[in-house]
């Protein structure tokens, strides 16, 4: 393994560590949930490795104990993970110069890897492509590890896991606050918050996510040149 790869691996590891707690706890909850449905440990482990979409995996677990309906399963997965389309559009520029690494980066795009890779302030001596690869790889392994622990040992854990999903919400708030502190102009962040709040009022909390992503993408795309000139003038 070359020194370039080793440097990127070392730089990415501490960057992803805050996510370990969230991924670990949610993975454990997923493993316990699968076990409560009567599945052996191998099922949540294989599903964590092959599906890698937290919300969809929980939904898939319930679908497995219902009458077989692949088309409904496809539509539900598409609605739940439709936001990944917009993540992909946002990452086109980031992945442009990474070569064959994109074939790993693309299928491992999740909310957390998108946040970390999109806003990463990578040192100039670290290869950008390899850094993003290791960020995505570590998060992927964290999820499999958590699901495995939940499936194997979750039933004997001595504490209540109720409400652990808030760990990921807290992490996203921290990421947003950190990004806010680094911005020279907060206009894009304020627009994002405003669009999110508007979509929440119009569509409700069950359906606001995709309209929010569409609105943010459209507005920021239309204002891209104006925002760029404002930031450069600061």
How would you sum up this structure, described in words?
This protein is mainly α. The mean pLDDT is 80. The chain is built from twelve helices and no strands. It is globular. Helices cover 72% and strands 0% of the residues. It has helices at 3-36, 42-50, 54-63, 70-81, 84-91, 102-105, 111-118, 128-153, 166-182, 187-203, 209-222, 224-233. One of its GO terms (biological process) is L-valine transmembrane transport. One of its GO terms (cellular component) is plasma membrane.
The number of helices is 12
Classify the secondary structure makeup into a structural class: mainly alpha
| Ends apart, CA distance between termini | 42 Å
Which regions contain 5 or more consecutive residues with pLDDT less than 50?
A: none
User: Main beta sheet: strand number and arrangement?
Assistant: none
Query: Order of helices and strands, N to C?
Result: HHHHHHHHHHHH
The total domain count is 2
**What is the molecular shape?**
globular
Alpha carbon gyration radius: 19 Å
Average pLDDT, all residues: 80
The level of helicity is over 70%
Estimate the strand proportion: under 5%
Number of strands: 0
Protein name: Branched-chain amino acid transporter AzlC
Pfam families: AzlC (PF03591)
Transmembrane segments: 12-33, 45-65, 71-92, 137-157, 193-220
Membrane topology: Multi-pass membrane protein
What is this structure, in a nutshell?
By secondary structure, the protein is mainly α.
């Amino acid at each position: 393994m070359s020194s370039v790869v080793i440097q990127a691996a070392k730089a990415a590891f501490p960057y992803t560590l805050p996510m370990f707690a969230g991924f670990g706890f949610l993975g454990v909850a997923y493993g316990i949930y699968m076990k409560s449905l009567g599945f052996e440990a191998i099922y949540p482990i294989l599903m964590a490795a092959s599906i890698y979409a937290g919300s969809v995996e929980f939904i898939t677990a319930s679908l497995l104990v219902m009458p077989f309906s692949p088309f409904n399963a496809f539509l539900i997965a598409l609605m739940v993970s439709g936001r990944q389309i917009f993540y992909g559009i946002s990452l086109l520029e980031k992945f442009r110069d990474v070569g064959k690494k994109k074939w790993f980066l693309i299928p491992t795009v999740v909310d957390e890897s998108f946040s970390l890779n999109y806003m990463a302030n990578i040192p100039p001596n670290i290869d950008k492509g390899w850094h993003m690869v290791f960020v995505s790889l570590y998060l992927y392994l964290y999820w499999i590890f958590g699901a495995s622990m939940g499936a194997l040992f979750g039933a004997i854990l001595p504490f209540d896991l109720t409400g652990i999903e808030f760990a990921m919400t807290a992490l996203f708030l921290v990421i947003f606050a950190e990004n806010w502190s680094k911005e020279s102009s907060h206009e894009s962040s304020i627009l994002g918050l405003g669009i999110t709040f508007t979509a929440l009022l119009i569509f409700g909390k069950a359906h606001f996510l995709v309209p929010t992503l569409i609105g943010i993408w459209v507005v920021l795309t239309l204002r891209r040149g104006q925002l760029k000139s404002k930031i450069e003038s600061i």
